[in-house]
């Protein structure tokens, strides 16, 4: 008997409903029926019926002023339920809190999803000048400290695949846009155990990141801190920020079993 693939059991109407939900992004918080129909190549009537169903369950809501739709409270609650049950998050968050308290700068947990870095959790520091939230943001790996850490610690085949598809957009004058220079940079990251974003994603913003490794020594995420460049002078980065980020990342790695696995090699 031939075993059928799971994809053979897909219910297309449900699949389309998820397509509609996933169309809402940070840069497109509200969308109309016509926009969604064009974006997803679906009939307007189908999109309207899907939205009506999702609205009845609280997963989308309609803006009474514009008539467009946006994500509803139920979608947020579902996301929070996922976060609460993610072991990486539960292990990392206390270390992020400690790191932010120690350095008085925002700390972040990021993971790699496909070919972009996704910021899964953050702790906001008590500072007069605040850095804009990164929570839920996704960005190309080449222009952030977090992304460079992933490129340094992923399997070689994964890195080569990323390099084939990655577009090295010039986000600022500091962004590395030459693949040879980027490879040299990530080799340094692999040797040192940390990466620095020197205003490569956003002018006026610096970041330091270190890897979270599991029992098998595979990277599962990164811990990072970021802040305005005037609060990140070179001396402070070297003497305070890098050691603190590495220490807290190592503690998470220890709780993920990394040192145990390493000792048994």
Strand order of the largest sheet: 5-4-3-8-7-6
Q: What number of structural domains do the residues give?
A: 2
Query: At CATH's second level, what is the architecture of the largest domain?
Result: 2-Layer Sandwich
Poorly predicted runs: none
Q: Characterize the overall form.
A: globular
CATH C-level of the largest domain: Alpha Beta
Rounded to the nearest angstrom, the distance between the terminal CA atoms is: 42 Å
Order of helices and strands: HHHEEHHEEEHHHEEEHH
* Overall number of strands: 8
**Measured on Cα atoms, how large is the radius of gyration?**
21 Å
Number of helices: 10
State the main characteristics.
six-stranded antiparallel β-sheet, 18% strand, alpha+beta, Beta-Lactamase, 265 residues, Arc Repressor Mutant, subunit A
Please tell me about this protein's structure.
With 265 residues, this protein is of the alpha+beta class. The protein has 2 domains: 11-74, Arc Repressor Mutant, subunit A, CATH 1.10.10; 86-263, 2-Layer Sandwich (Beta-Lactamase), CATH 3.30.450.40. The chain has 10 helices and 8 strands. Strands 5-4-3-8-7-6 form a 6-stranded antiparallel β-sheet, sandwiched between helices. It has a two-stranded antiparallel sheet with strand order 1-2. β7 (205-213) and β8 form a beta hairpin. The protein is globular.
């Amino acid at each position: 008997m031939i075993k059928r693939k799971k994809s053979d059991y897909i219910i297309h109407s449900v699949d389309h409903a998820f397509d509609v939900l996933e169309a809402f992004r940070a840069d497109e918080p509200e969308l109309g029926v016509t926009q969604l129909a064009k974006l997803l190549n679906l009939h307007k009537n189908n999109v309207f019926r899907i939205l009506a169903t999702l609205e009845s369950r609280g997963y989308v809501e309609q803006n009474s002023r514009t008539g467009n739709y946006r994500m509803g409270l139920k979608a947020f609650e579902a996301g929070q339920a996922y976060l609460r049950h993610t072991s990486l998050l539960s292990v990392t968050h206390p270390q992020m809190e400690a790191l932010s308290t120690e350095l008085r700068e925002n700390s972040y947990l990021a993971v790699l999803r496909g070919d972009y870095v996704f910021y899964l959790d953050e702790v906001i520091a008590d500072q007069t000048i605040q850095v804009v939230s990164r929570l839920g943001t996704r960005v190309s790996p080449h222009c952030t400290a977090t992304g460079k850490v992933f490129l340094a610690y992923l399997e070689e085949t994964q890195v080569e695949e990323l390099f084939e598809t990655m577009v090295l957009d010039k986000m600022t004058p500091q962004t590395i846009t030459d693949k040879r220079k980027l490879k040299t940079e990530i080799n340094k990251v692999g040797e040192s155990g940390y990466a620095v974003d020197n205003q490569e994603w956003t002018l006026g913003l610096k970041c330091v990141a270190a890897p979270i490794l599991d029992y098998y020594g595979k990277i599962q995420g990164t811990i990072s801190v970021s802040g305005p460049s005037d609060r990140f002078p070179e001396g402070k980065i070297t003497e305070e920020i890098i050691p603190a980020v590495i220490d807290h990342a190592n503690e998470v790695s220890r709780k993920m079993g990394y040192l145990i696995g390493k000792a048994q090699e």
